[in-house]
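Quick question: what would this complex look like in 3D?
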Amino acid sequence: MRFMVIVKANEDTEAGAQPSEEMLNEMGAFNEELAKAGVLLAGEGLHPSSKGARVYFSGDKRTVVDGPFTETKELIAGFWLLEVKSLEEAVEWVKRVPNPTGEESQIEIRQVFTEDDFVNASEEMKDRERQLRAENEARANG
Amino acid sequence: MATDARRAVEAVWRIESARLIAGLARMVRDVGLAEELAQDAMVSALEQWPEHGIPRNPGAWLMTAAKNRAVDLIRRKQNYQRKLEEIGRDTEHDHVADAADRVGEIDDDLLRLVFTACHPVLSTEAQVALTLRMLGGLTTDEIARAFLVPESTVAQRIVRAKKALAKAGVPFEVPAENERDARLSSVLGVIYLIFNEGYSATAGDDWMRPALCEDALRLARVLAGLMPREPEVHGLVALLEIQASRAKARIGPNGEPVLLLDQNRARWDQLLIRRGLAALAKAESLGGAGGPYAVQAAIVACHARARVPEDTDWTRIAGLYEALSLVAPSPIVELNHAVAIGMAFGPEVGLELVDELVGEPALKEYHLLPSVRGDLLAKLGRHAEARVEFERAAGLTRNERERKLLLDRAAAC
């Protein structure tokens, strides 16, 4: 099972504050632990939303709004992709994420959708979806 | 609520068991005993955690519980005093030391455990069972289900394996330099065998047992973390990541196998492919491009890089099989070489090479020989002969799904 572990933003991450050396060390050690346990597939930290943008949809209309965005708690500051046996295992790992400053924050764990989960899709629809994904990924990979 | 706690204990077990067993084995110098102590600690956890909640540091809790039990046991044994001192000393250290400071030590213990579980005094079956049990954190029941044998058989295998290790006086250590390569290749072989058992289930109704593939991939990644300078470990990781990337595409809507060239490549897992290619690059950068696993990884990488089957670089694949036949010669490699030659230079050339293998005793019962021959004959328009070959192949496979596929191909000739 694949899970995305989402680190929520807070005022510091949104302000683009650099993590302290202590934080970097502890996170580095934790990432190494995840990798050594064979469960870490990928992980990245994100720049503050002030460097991002949103595209709003309404019918045919597309409206682009530049960051920053205000609902700090709903924003994402980074993620890990983990491959584990169960939600419980993902939870066990997330409980071990270091929190050296002791500040309040939250981390959300969400299972990654795979095509097997789309029960209502016909085989034909799934094929189209896969085709699009592959083209997408091929573009992303150059 | 009790089920939740149980599942949580199982999750902790999966994360902690290998390190727990490895750490205990260093203390008691007996992996069999270490494993039993760890199991006992797990039972205590199952009794206590549902009531009191999961401790903040579950790994340390389990270790303390297991050590207390070890002290009880050793108290009853002759060399009580000396052993007790050893354990007491270790216990003190472990309590004060921070987990991060002990990473190197844990890695050493884990490596010793890997080499002990795959020790040559054990049969391959026993190595597989011990590795899954002690390093993969699988229960006897899970191993039994994965290999379609009764649980009692697996339990017996493990008991016998532990006895064999004790009887042979196998030391809990990483092998010395002079035998290290040979020992490492048997470790890699065990992990690859576990993966393959999941990837092409040799018997039964399922074509794949994905959980077993995931366990093997995880073990390979763990090993790469423990031995980052060994190119062949990265070669194995690369091979497994790329093969695993195709898992979904290998099964049709009704559970039937889909051959490589017929697979919908959009279903290949691009994340695993990228990881596999990175691991291959690592193996090569460490000077291991010619190792058997790295070469096999380079072959699967050729497929992974081809957006459509027509883009496959068969000439390169044929060359890689030739390289593989030098470092790991086998009739099966020859057969694959023939397939690649057939794809690169035409079915006549391929068939010529396959025909040379027909008398090969090692391939007498191997269903892929007639299957490949049937495929080449069909491409040459020799349908009647092809049909006979597909039927022969169907008669040889022990996998139901594959048999059906081969009979369908025979009928289509």
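Answer marked as accepted. The domain at 334-412 of chain B is CATH 1.25.40.10 (Serine Threonine Protein Phosphatase 5, Tetratricopeptide repeat).
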